[in-house]
Amino acid sequence: MLADILSPLSDWGLLILRVALGIIFIVHGWPKLNPKSPMKGIAGVTGFLAQLKIPAPALFAWVLALVETVGSLLLILGPFTRLIALGLAIDMLVAIQRVKRGMAKAPFVAPQGGGWEFEFALLAAALALLFTGPGSIALRWAANW
Q1: Quick one: CA dihedral 141, 30, 26, 95, positive or negative?
Q2: Cα separation of 77 and 6, whole Å?
Q3: Which residues pair with 113 in a beta bridge?
Q4: Which of 7, 88, 100, 109 has the smallest CB count inside 10 Å?
């Protein structure tokens, strides 16, 4: 019975997922662009990526910051959903592997935060959008990406 009621509204679920994921990433991406943030903008991100031994850290600092900000704005609107979701999924895979599990040696759930369950949830949400696309409540140009 619940499926009969909610199935016709499934595209609203995709909209909610896109908006929620987009807002989370914008909040985390803006400090990567803002030189006055505690992260020190692109310069700070470049230094951090260099510590992680990421190749071409300056290039990937820009890619990371733009995917998390501009990409997330587009994700909310709908175009390029699959492409942006792929970028965000890669972002979270690297965060989990290099930062949480590699550098911090964090468990999945840590007693006082610091685990990688949050990044895992973001990875799962990005993968869901990669496989489903934006749904019908989205700007249609380039929506199949």
Answers
A1: positive
A2: 22
A3: 111
A4: 7
Tokens standing for residue 34 = 């803002």
Structure tokens at 100: 């949480």
Q: Considering Cα of 131, then 133, then 134, then 136, what sign does the dihedral take?
A: negative
The angle, 0 to 180 degrees and rounded to 10, between the axes of the packed helices 10-33 and 57-66 is 140
Query: For 42-85, how does the pLDDT look when each residue is reduced to its tens digit (9 = 90+)?
Result: 999 999 999 999 999 999 999 999 999 999 999 999 999 999 99
Dihedral sign, Cα of residue 141, residue 126, residue 26, residue 71: negative
User: How far, in Å, CA of 88 to CA of 130, rounded?
Assistant: 10
Contact 18, 129 (CB under 8 A): yes
Q: How far apart are CA 22 and CA 40, in angstroms?
A: 22
